[in-house]
Amino acid sequence: MAKIVFGPTIVAYGWIILGYVLAGLILYAVVMFAAYRLGLFQRISDWPWIAKIALACGLLLIGVGCFFSVLPTAYSMLIPAAVYVILTIFGGLALRAKNSGV
Q: How far apart are CA 14 and CA 35, in angstroms?
């Protein structure tokens, strides 16, 4: 899940804040559609709460990136990405623990 959904979301955010808004939005949409078609969201109700929050915050991160895309690029724009990375690490670990039966 982390490699298929969470990672490309960070890449899309990076593209968007650098001004490649359309490319970032297309990447995010393609990744989400592919994850849906692969059935990754089929049992989302069984996911740990932290993984659900991480998934929902992906869309929020893309929205923040769209806002930042109209501003001059600054290092402070990396703060939302850093928070998202930390959130996705905990979400990915929780999903892995749940799937391994721990």
A: 20
Confirm if 50 and 91 have CB atoms less than 8 A apart: yes
Query: Model pTM?
Result: 0.90
pLDDT tens digits, 53-102: 999 999 999 999 999 999 999 999 999 999 999 999 999 899 888 877 65
Three-class SS string for 11-79?
A: HHHHHHHCCCHHHHHHHHHHHHHHHHHCCCCCCHHHCCHHHHHHHHHHHHHHHHHHHHCCCCCCHHHHH
What residue segments make up the domains of the chain, in order of their start? Answer: 2-100
Residue 64: HSE in the Cβ half-sphere, 13 Å Cα cutoff: 17
